[in-house]
Design a protein that fits this description.
Blueprint (H helix, E strand, L loop, with lengths): L1 H10 L8 E5 L3 E3 L3 E8 L5 E6 L2 E4 L1 E6 L4 E9 L6 E10 L5 E11 L5 E4 L6 H16 L20 E4 L4 E4 L4 E4 L3 E4 L5 E3 L4 E9 L3 E9 L2 E11 L6 E2 L4 E5 L9 E8 L2 E3 L9
Parallel strand pairs: 2-9, 10-12
Antiparallel strand pairs: 1-3, 3-7, 4-5, 4-8, 6-7, 8-9, 11-14, 12-13, 14-21, 15-20, 16-17, 16-19, 17-18, 18-20, 18-21, 21-22
Bound molecules: zinc ion (ZN).
């Protein structure tokens, strides 16, 4: 009888207190990449947040893992282009009884191998640069809200196309009149090719700009926005909810563009990040 009791005891959880652990997809990330943080706990957390490079990001509740009997929270953290070296990442969470706990890790940020390209548009001048910065501000203005996460991993490529421009490419325009790192992917496809929503979300704008042409911006929640530029036609309206894969527009050549292509960009908390980092499951 005593033996059975001891065996039964050993089958019970070692401790009934809270157990929480933090996992990173990787402790090495490329500049312009996304740090993916998972916070697993055997009890629901009251709150969780991650601090990186002086900014704090709220974690969002993902799911209850039945097999592991764990609650899973996640946080996606942007690493701006141009970052390098070892950085601190601090995760802080609050348990049911208001006890606070902290996990500290080091993240190594490495450079991105980027192409250098020169583009001739014949349209870069003082006037267009002013317009570009004005329109850039408008585009960021659509990304002020942090809404609940509605996406499911992974994100999908919005078009079947040839990639002609990579994320982070160093570009100079019109003989060095302007230059910057490319903030998205350029996907060349014939005019009229269907563009699909990369994930579930809400259309924040479907409008026309001078520089980016006809644009669509979708809010996927948790600070993730996808942007679709230089479109031909648009099939969605502001405020519409879309599902991953829905047809939202057609590839075009509107705005400052050197041929029919989709400029596809992902902003995470207003920081342009490598879309490739969201195309795998996590
Ligand atoms: Zn582009």
């Amino acid at each position: 009888m005593r033996k059975i009791f001891i065996i039964l005891m050993s089958l019970l959880p070692v401790s009934l207190s809270a157990e929480t652990y933090v996992m990173l997809e990787s402790n090495t990330v490329k500049e312009g990449g996304v740090i993916k943080v998972r916070i697993n706990s055997n009890e629901p957390l009251k709150a969780a947040e991650v601090t990186f490079m002086g900014k704090t990001y709220q974690a969002f509740y993902r799911k209850y893992d039945v097999r592991e009997s764990e609650y899973m929270c996640m946080a996606f953290i942007p690493v701006p282009l141009g970052t390098n070296g070892k950085k601190d990442l601090k995760t802080r969470w609050l348990l049911r009884n208001d006890d606070e706990a902290i996990d500290r890790q080091k993240v190594r940020v490495v450079g991105l191998k980027s192409r250098e390209t020169q583009l001739s548009t014949g349209m870069v001048n003082d006037n267009s640069m002013v317009r570009l910065s004005n329109e850039g501000r408008i585009i960021y203005g659509f990304q002020n809200r942090i809404t609940p996460a509605r996406f499911t991993m992974p994100f999908i490529m919005p078009v079947k196309a040839v990639q002609t421009g990579g994320f982070g490419d160093k570009r100079t325009y019109d003989g060095g009149k302007a230059g910057w790192r490319h903030k998205g992917l350029d996907l060349a496809a014939p005019k009229g090719t269907k563009v699909h929503a990369s994930n579930n979300g809400t259309v924040m704008t479907a409008s026309t700009t001078k520089m980016y042409g006809i644009i669509v911006i979708i809010d996927h929640g948790a600070g993730i926005y996808t942007m679709y530029f230089h479109l031909n036609r648009v099939f969605v309206k502001k405020g519409m909810n879309v599902k991953k894969g829905d047809i939202i527009a057609e590839v075009g050549n509107t705005g400052i563009s050197t041929g029919p292509h989709l400029h596809w960009q992902v902003n995470l908390h207003k920081v342009p990040v490598n879309p490739g980092d969201l195309l795998a499951d996590f």
